Amino acid sequence: MRIKIVLQKTITAIIILSFITHFLSCSNPTEDAADNFIKMRKLKPGVVIINMGYDAVTSILTEKGIVVIDAGISNSLTAKYRKIMENELGRDDFKYLINTHSHSDHTGGNQIFNDALIVGHENCVTEMKEAVKNIDNIKSRLRNIISEYELQLKEQIEDSTEREEALCQKMRYQHTYNDWVNNRIVTYPELTFRDTMNFNLENVNFNLIYFGKAHSGSDILIYVPEVKILFVGDLFSKYGRPSIGNIAKADVERWQVVKEWVNKRSVGIEIVIGGHGQIMDKNDMEEFNKYIDEKWAEVN
Length: 300
Ligand SMILES: [Zn+2]
Fold this sequence. Notes:
CATH class of the largest domain: Alpha Beta
Bound molecules: zinc ion
Number of strands: 13
CATH architecture of the largest domain: 4-Layer Sandwich
Number of domains: 3
Radius of gyration: 23 Å
């Protein structure tokens, strides 16, 4: 009799415990460890930048709606960034998304802004199409990157900065891999240009120029005079360190033209934003200009 009572109590306890566990695990079904790595910074009134590892997505509020610069690597992560921006700006009308270049860590989340008009250089579309020709290759490359990070994580010291960074990167690639498994829809810029493009959103202007072949074949600069910000994509990082591949004379000639375009606007530039969220200034731009001059001297 006594054993029976103990048994009944145990069973009741197990049932209650499993209810509690079930309730806790279902209380926030969207909770994701990646959320801890997403950071938001307000650069100016109406200018918000979201970072997660190498992802950097900036939004600028205008009277006619929100303009976003770059879309991160993964649809599922960018959906989170979008929610944060909507909450922060108190609006959900996205007018334009501008891709600084074609690379997947800048265009991977385009689908999340398919209600906006996506803008990019005409080569951006060609390069993106080329990059997604073999989905199986992409998936296996992503699996390899994830395994590399898993190995790193095993060796790194608990709570170290390196470990946190590796964990964050692993999550970015894991989300990207999951996107492909869930049949990601690749979304291309619809509004493209060859040389320059300007558009006005009532109180904010956007000046776009094609940089010429450099970090990719589709790099553009975006200048927003009202907030005094220049976006340089992956062309260079802090101290003007350029991220540029093989170059020809024609490329350097083009850079010289673009340099003049920037110089004309330089009085108004306060902040220079790199493609991975690096906040730089005119000095970094000057260092980059020096590099262009050196290359100019080499080809002339
Ligand atoms: Zn890039």
